[in-house]
């Protein structure tokens, strides 16, 4: 068997205050038989990414 990386999907519930900001998102695997906390590998069992939030199209080009 070959390893297949998991797929991560995220749904963000945004508010007007979030427009124009960059948000950090971290997804972490949880389970009793899973390793996700290793001092030598801080990304083990997790993925972190940033999302830049633009406003709705009708608000983007306003002065």
Report what the structure shows:
The mean pLDDT is 80. The chain is elongated and about 50 Å long. It has one helix at 57-60; strands at 22-28, 46-52. A two-stranded antiparallel ribbon has the order 1-2. The protein has one domain. Helices cover 6% and strands 22% of the residues. By secondary structure, it is mainly β. The relative contact order is 0.27. The protein contains 1 helix and 2 strands; from the N terminus they run ββα. Pfam families: Na_K-ATPase. It is a single-pass type II membrane protein. It is found in: Membrane. One of its GO terms (cellular component) is sodium:potassium-exchanging ATPase complex.
Low-confidence segments: none
The coarse silhouette is elongated
**Strand order in the sheet with the most strands:** 1-2
Counting structural domains, the number is 1
Strand tally is: 2
- What is the strand content? 15-25%
Main pleated-sheet profile: 2 strands, antiparallel
Distance between the termini: 56 Å
- Could you tell me the radius of gyration in angstroms? 17 Å
Write the layout of secondary structure elements.
Layout: E1 22-28, E2 46-52, H1 57-60
């Amino acid at each position: 068997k070959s390893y297949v990386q998991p797929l991560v999907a995220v749904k963000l519930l945004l508010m007007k205050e979030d427009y124009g900001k960059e948000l950090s998102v971290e997804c972490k695997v949880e389970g009793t038989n899973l390793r996700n906390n290793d001092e030598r590998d801080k990304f083990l069992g997790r993925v972190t990414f940033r999302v830049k939030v633009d406003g709705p199209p009708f608000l983007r080009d306003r002065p």
